Amino acid sequence: MRRLLGLAAALFLLIPATAARAAPGVPYEETRFARVASEIAKDPLYVDMDLADLIGTEARTSIRAAMTRTSRSLGVPVYFVAIPNDSEAESYGRTGAFLAGLHAHLRRDGLFLMVDARGELGAAAYGVPRRFSGRLLPFGLRYADDYDRPFAELPPRVSRALEGIAAAPPGPPATEESETGVPAFGQEHPPLEAEIWGPFFVGLLAGATIAGLLYGLFLLALLPWRTRRRRGRPAPSRTAPSRPSPRWLRRHAAKELGALGAELDPDRPGMIRAYDAARLLHDDVADRPVRGDDGAFLDLVAVIVLARQGRAARTRAKPAPTCFVNPLHGEAGRSRRKIDGRGRNPVCDGCANGPYENRILRLPDRRPHYTVPGRWQRGALGSRRPDLAADVLESLGVDS
Amino acid sequence: MVMIVALALFGLSGTAHASPAAPSPPGRADLLAERLAKDPIQVTDHALRDLRPGTAARIRALVARLGVPVYVVVGPPRLPEGTRSRDLIPLLRDRLGKDGVYLVTDPDAGGTAQQFGGSLPVDRAWTVAALELPYEADIADHVQRWVEILTAPNVARRIDQRRPRPEDTTPSRGEVRDRKEMTAFGVGTALGCVPLLTFLIVARLRKAARR
User: Fold this and answer.
1) What strands, in cross-sheet order, belong to the sheet with A78-82?
2) Which residues lie across from A368 on neighbouring strands?
3) Closest CB from B22, B181, B189 relative to A57
4) Cα B146 to the chain's mean position, in Å?
5) Do B79 and B88 meet the contact criterion of CB atoms below 8 Å apart?
6) How far apart are CA B107 and CA A336, in angstroms?
7) CA distance B98 to B80
8) CB atoms within 10 A of CB A38
9) Where are the domains of chain B?
10) Residues of A in contact with B173 (CB under 8 A)
11) CB B56 within 8 A of CB B88
12) How many Cβ atoms from other residues are within 10 Å of residue B185's Cβ?
């Protein structure tokens, strides 16, 4: 948890600290304000040299007349400046910023009007006795109609703008300016804001997906090793399942019994005895439903074991003990093993080593066969007492 | 051709010629020439964000090394549609009436140079200087490289053997942002992948060991 918090903190550090604003007022930033302020202190109509050829004498006369009229009706001076004001300028192309700087240098109140090289008009009122509502200039007046000849209609635009301002209802001296804020020098292009959490969470999802894919690859890589391990021991095959179904038992009991009957040799008493016992047991269980009847279930297992013992009796004088883990595995080898805390018991070669839990013969309710009380528990289905046939015949009262 | 140039010059010279009936204020070329007569280095103050303080002084010191009269106009060359700063120079020369090297450019070094009464390849040198310098170089750097080229022992060879523009190594704003976002994505991917994969594999190995 603490590590996660640390990572989150590291991510936050990736977000750049918003650059502190540069120290204000490098003196040269103000040189243009100072120059223009000193000019309009002499003459309230100032046309910069770079725009001088665009505003002719007639235009100037008409603008000056409009300024005089407005100044008289407002009772404050009116200033007009024509000057280029692009984004490279200190005012960053903003008329409000230029007029505010100019006013600060002129230190006189009044109505300030300007036009830049693209013909955009700007206005700012400082201490003008009018009650203003919203912007000083309507949008239609701010920009020239003809983009190619931005100064063609300048005098009428200026006089309409001035008339509109003078027509505002009288009030106490008020200040009205448009946006004056500009980025500091050298800070015109602040670093782009990076999206942190979006990519982070997408990355989390992608990471989880990648983890799943890698895990799949890991399992695939493990597959040959697992099959090799499985191949190492005799598979609990079709003839010896760990959890046989009653149907399977019934079918195989009949099959094994049939096989024994087919190769029955009258000279082999072991075979005959085993066949008789298996037959009796099989007939006994034939009509009983096996499902839910533990005794019948184990009886059918015993039939199979008996039938196999009988077939083995062709070469063997005495029956061999079966595997304790699962009697269906067949004869036990020489090894004995402690199984489930029930002492050392004979087991087949497949169960001699390695885990055996999955190899135990279990009833449909998952109980191991040796835990089920009944007539098979003591002998463990031929594992502890190999001569199943004797047990069966004795219990049925048949003389062998 | 002569007619076209003459027309262009006529248009540039301002309204003074266009309406001779009414006395109008002088045209742009007249005003510039007037200023150049007072000070041959004219640097605009309309682009303070692009021009560092002391640009005019630096340019003055640099062009002095050329040994000929040099008139420099650095400003927004707001010219009528279809004309170039190239067309302003003859007008300035005409108003000023003096031979020498004329350089008219905007603060981004988009401009022209022309020499009257001499044969220095000033215009080609200006183009080559602009091609050699990095994009963020300011106008004084351009003038410095221009003077450097023009004062080389063999100017023609110096122009032919143009140096390559230095590569821009500072990452752009977009690259900086993208790097941050990719880092966030990478950290997220690692955080999503490693713990989950570790958990899955450990669980799997434990299960295998239990068997």
Assistant:
1) A45-47, A78-82, A110-115, A121-130, A170-176
2) A362
3) B22
4) 12
5) yes
6) 99
7) 25
8) 12
9) 28-160
10) 189, 191-192
11) no
12) 21
Lookup: tokens for A246 = 């009653």
- With residue A338 as reference, give the H or E element that holds it: strand A336-338
Structure confidence at residue A223 (pLDDT):
82
Tokens representing A193 are: 């804001």
The distance in angstroms from the start CA to the end CA of chain B is 98
Nearest to B146 by CA among B89, B94, B72: B72
Q: Sign of the CA dihedral A92, A96, A99, A105? A: negative
Nearest CA of chain B to the CA of A177: how many Å? Answer: 22
Query: With an 8 Å Cβ cutoff, are A50 and B75 in contact?
Result: yes
- What 3-state DSSP class applies to A308? helix
In 3D space, the residue among A301, A258, A279, A311 whose CA is nearest the CA of residue A398 turns out to be: A279
> Tell me: the pLDDT tens digits for A242-300?
888 888 888 888 888 898 888 888 888 888 888 988 888 888 887 888 777 888 888 88
> Per the structure block, which two tokens stand in for A188?
């015109």
Distance CA A301, CA A361 (A): 10
Sort out which chain A residues have CB atoms less than 8 A from B81's CB and list them. Answer: 148
State how far residue A83 is from chain B, nearest Cα, in angstroms. Answer: 8
Q: State mean pLDDT over A351-368.
A: 83
Sign of the alpha-carbon torsion through A367, A373, A374, A375: positive
Q: Token pair for residue A177?
A: 């300016």
Say if the Cβ atoms of B76 and A117 lie within 8 Å: yes
Three-state secondary structure readout of B159-199: HHCCCCCCCCCCCCHHHHHHHHHHHHHHHHHHHHHHHHHHH
DSSP codes joined into one string, A244-290: --HHHHHHHHHHHHHHHHHT--TT-HHHHHHHHHHHHHHHHHHTS--
Q: Is A22 on the interface with B (CB under 8 A)?
A: no
Distance CA A361, CA A326 (A): 5
Residue B131: which of B145, B117, B148 has the closest Cα?
A: B145
Rg of chain B, C-alpha, whole Å: 29
For A55, counting Cβ atoms within 10 Å of its Cβ (0-12 exposed, 13-18 middle, 19+ buried), the class is: buried
Hey, what are B108's tokens? 């981004």
| Residue A10: count of CB within 10 angstroms of its CB | 11
Question: What is the tens place of the pLDDT at every residue in B92-134?
Answer: 999 999 999 999 998 888 889 999 999 999 999 999 999 999 9
Q: In order of start, what are the domains of chain A with their CATH numbers?
A: 30-176 (3.10.310), 246-395 (no CATH)
Domain covering B28-160: architecture: Roll (3.10)
- How far is the CA of A227 from the CAs of A196, A230, A350, B167, in angstroms? 46, 5, 16, 59
Residue scoring higher pLDDT (A231 or B85) = B85
Residues 6+ apart with CB under 8 A from A108: A41, A77
**A209: nearest CA in chain B?**
B193
Is the whole model's pTM more than 0.90, yes or no? Answer: no
Measured distance CA(A400)–CA(A84) in Å, rounded: 128
